[in-house]
Amino acid sequence: MEYGIFGLIILVLDIYAIYQTLTSPASTVAKIVWTLAILILPVLGFIAWLVAGPRGGTSAHV
Length: 62
Description:
3 helices; 73% helix; mainly alpha
């Protein structure tokens, strides 16, 4: 039962990551690469997206 819940959580997080990627201002090629990475490697792709994925237009300048 725990694996089913874990899988559902990963699915929801991956869908969120793909949505954020597709709605980002990144180039089309970057969107395709990130989406494929998330789909092919769900857990590692999501973690990589969190660390280095395309960001929105706002950034903090210090």
